[in-house]
Amino acid sequence: MLTEVHVPDDMATVLGLMASGAKVVAGGTSLMPWLNDHASPATELVSLRRAGLGTVQVSGTTARLGAAATLARVEHDPALGFLDPVARSIASVPVRNLATVGGNLFAPRPHGDLAVALIALGARVTVAGQTGTRELPVEEFLAAGAPAGLVTDVAFDIPAPGAFRYLKAARRRFNSASLVTVAATVTETAGAVTRIVVALGGVGPRPLRAGAVEAALLGGPLNAETVRAAAEAGLGEIAPADDAYASAWYRARVFPVHLRRALLGH
Amino acid sequence: MTVKIVNLKVNGVDKALMAEPGTTLLLALREHLGLMGAKRGCAQGACGSCTVLLDGNPVVSCLVPVATVDGAEVGTVEGLADGQKLSDVQQAFVDGFATQCGFCTPGMIMSAEALLDRNPDPTDDEIGEAISGNVCRCTGYEPIVSAIRDAAAARRRTSGGATATTGASANTTAGQEAQV
């Protein structure tokens, strides 16, 4: 049962309460369903709602999203139009008005579609602790199992027009979990891929960076043949699971199709 | 356990309540303030029957610890009608038989009100997206989508905007179920 809900207006107090065992709640879309359904041990919450982490700043070509910025805030920011399809692919309107950027990094599989996009954007996450802050790539943060501390923001360079690709395959068009999510940033020069970052969701224990797919595509043209070969390579680095939305077999079977659609648009 | 005084402006009226730590916004509305419109369905944020407006935006109130929104403005279905005159969305739901058991209706209506506040002339696709977090197990969605479309037309007529098409439900997406 909840014994206390703290709503501090500064980060130092948040960190102090975390150190004394309080659980962090931002949008509440993951934690509150659990608390509503389970007889939890005595639990204190510390809310990020007033802690000053809800801002979105776009300065020049750099974007910095506060950990407590809602997905709706990202969705409606005119400077982040390329993220509109990402935000709108997640949950529903009344959930996106609560769910946060930082919270999405902790969403269990097959969720976490914003995190997939952030990996593809090369985003870095800032993690605060009582001894200071550190910044690390989102993919490293996730691969390390979300190390201790408080996520305060994520930052990335806004991609060149057309460089960012995103596709989420789901059972329904709106408000459905990922079967396969593909996000990528691609730079092509003179008909060859000169830089590529590919991230995948729904097909692993967490959002993944698809190094084998990138390696297969780097330096060559981007076409049906090369993407088919890259998907073949990618099958070795995904680890899909069965769940209520699809079987692992199905996810692996359709992964090449959705990789192609994400990268080539057809 | 600390009980806190929480202040809210609910449907334009200042309210105060004593909230235990586990009190959600939904519980506060229903059990402290006696507003029974928002419903407790799944308590997971998945069914949308508890949807209310929080500072103007629709949220699933079952997932909001009320202590975290002290000072907020909250809009519920009880605040829509002007005396006996229903809002355009409420009236369209009545006229279009868009309710059956009625359990989802307050949440549907609040999602629709929020949509029309932002977008006075939504497409069926946009309506489908707006109510994708509101589950109805009775009507099959088509009457709900039609009602929202009709409410949008009524609002535009009232506000003197674009010429509205009456009976719009008859000329679009007949026989198709909204993809929500």
Keywords:
heterodimer; A: 266 residues; alpha+beta; globular; B: 180 residues; five-stranded mixed β-sheet; disordered C terminus
Could you walk me through the main structural features you see in this protein, from its secondary elements to its overall organization?
The complex is a heterodimer of chains A (266) and B (180). Chain A is an alpha+beta fold and 266 residues long. Helix content of chain A is 31%, strand content 27%. Chain A has 11 helices and 12 strands. Chain A has helices at residues 11-19, 31-37, 71-75, 84-88, 93-96, 101-104, 113-120, 138-143, 211-217, 224-234, 248-264; strands at residues 2-6, 23-25, 43-47, 56-59, 62-66, 124-129, 132-137, 150-157, 164-170, 178-189, 192-201, 208-209. In chain A, strand 10 and strand 11 form a beta hairpin. In chain A, helix 9 packs antiparallel against helix 10 (224-234) and helix 10 runs antiparallel to helix 11 (248-264). With 180 residues, chain B is an alpha+beta fold. Chain B is built from 5 helices and 5 strands, in the order ββαβββαααα. Chain B has a 5-stranded mixed beta sheet with strand order 2-1-5-3-4, sandwiched between helices. In chain B, helix 2 crosses helix 5. The N and C termini of chain B lie far apart (41 Å). Residues 162-180 of chain B have low confidence and may be disordered. At the A-B interface, strand 1, helix 2, strand 3 and helix 5 of A face strand 4, helix 3 and helix 4 of B.
